[in-house]
Amino acid sequence: MSRLAPRPSLRRKTRSGQALVELALILPVLLVLFTAALDLGRLYYGQITINNAAKEGALEAAQEKTISFDSTRDCDPDTNRVMCPVINEAKDSLITIHHSDVSLTCSPDPCPTTPAIGDTVTVKVTAQFSLISPTLAVFFGGQSFPIAASSTAQIGVAPQPAGAAAPSPTPTPTPTPTPTPSPDPDATPTPTPDPSPTPVCVAPTVSGSIGISPGSGRSSAPGNGGSATLFSMTAPTVDPQTDCTFTYTWSFGDGASASGTTVTHTYAQAGTGSSKEYTVTLVISAGPGATWTGSQTVRVNP
Description:
The chain has 302 residues and is an alpha+beta fold. It has two domains: 26-156, no CATH class; 202-302, Immunoglobulin-like (Sandwich), CATH 2.60.40.10. It is built from three helices and 13 strands; from the N terminus they run H-H-E-E-H-E-E-E-E-E-E-E-E-E-E-E. The chain has helices at residues 8-63, 83-89, 137-140, and strands at 102-107, 120-130, 144-154, 206-207, 211-213, 216-218, 229-234, 237-238, 247-251, 257-259, 262-267, 277-285, 291-301. It has a five-stranded mixed beta sheet, with no helix packed on it. Helix 1 runs antiparallel to helix 2 (83-89). It starts with 7 loop residues before the first helix and ends with a strand.
């Protein structure tokens, strides 16, 4: 006795049910991948926004004759001009920047009223970023975390006025000849000492790089269980120059600064970016225009 073939309508119902089950299984995975990709795009756009905001603030500060900045107040075109381009850069974007998220430091500190070549200003912007998907929170340490950017610019130096025209020389009158005295055979001539040359200090020549010990550590950022990390930083060796005095100015990348050949600094927050690093900058100066600038990164884990 031959076996009856299944009806076509029954086969179609079986395929439809199988497709619904497969869709139900794969749809959550597709949603997770979509929200993760959306969060990564938002994070990239947010980082670009605060990078541009920091650059705009540093450029505005470098162009001001007298730097006007107050992190406790909003933008004011008369008394708080540096804050204006920073806040305006983030308008209508995914990132909101408050006046308390912006800091400004100068090298040397405080900001000079009469800047010279080598004087710099740094603007740092920190903003809070929130993820849509909880999937990426595992990799970033939470659903909400800070992102930061900083920018450094040379403070504008006013051009020096052209020197006045040299006066016409006055003719030297012909001297009246003086009788030549008879030489004293017993007199011993007194030697004339050679004048000491005036030292000319040039840009320092260094050997090695900035020494940082330890190279990395844990921060005391709230909620991550770390502890504040103390770093010791030593300037590279400078080749000696006669009668030249060197100054050492440090910027630690978190808004703090110090001076000296060997300094210590405690980072209270984890480093910025995916590498969790701060950029330590050292300026060694022997006078106007005679400077050496070096930098090195230090990793501060949460």
